[in-house]
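Consortium newsletter contribution from the modelling node. Members have asked for a concrete example of what our holo predictions look like. Here is one, prepared for the cytidine-5'-monophosphate complex that several groups have been discussing at recent meetings.
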Amino acid sequence: MAKDVIIACDFAGAEETLRFLDQFQEEKPFVKIGMELFYAEGPQIVRQIKARGHKIFLDLKLHDIPNTVKKAMKVLSSLDVDIVNLHAAGTKAMMKAALEGLTRPDGTRPLLIAVTQLTSTDQQALEEDLMIHAPIDQVVMHYAKNAQEAGLDGIVCSPLEAGKVHEICGEDFLTVTPGIRFADAAKDDQKRIMTPADARKNGSDYIVVGRPITAAEDPASAYRRCISEFLQETH
Ligand code: C5P
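And here is the predicted structure:
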């Protein structure tokens, strides 16, 4: 199972992003591009970062009728990204259609992972706004199961949930986990956090790290620290 650190490139534009990536000399970190950067710069930013040799997790969280998602995924697949995602709330039919759209004529495709419930949604919002009355952790695990049954490769979740997801969906089902902080650092606006080493012990396959690297005085050394803490063998 590939384990890696993905840097969340939460920048507003191409110039800032490419300047940030210029700070990495030999290593080519796996990067996450989100809605802000993609909508500002379009597919060209994906091509530029790919051309520099980075792997890309395109975090656009698709959610629409199956046919629309299938066609949109076909476009994203042609950009040669490595991981894309969608909302599991779009149903199993939508997730299956997404996989069809992503699969290239030669049978290859980017990894496809699902967002279960956003961490900004709490039990109260689930019940009052969405009229879902099951406990939120049950909803998350149910959506994870749906994603697996639809043929997806994994889910985005908290590192605190990664062990449970592997218990229910198996070791090969990927857990991609944001909410990572070094033991000696600020939490920012994250509430449920873990260190890279603990995320590994809990079974995270990929950790998504933003500000601990992007806002560090020396991002390349913060990245290397993350890699060494996350990839070290546990004893
Ligand atoms: O700067 P920080 O390490 O908090 O960035 C985490 C990244 O992961 C951001 O891009 C954020 O949008 C994303 N994310 C998250 N929590 C989720 C889903 C995504 O922090 N539940």
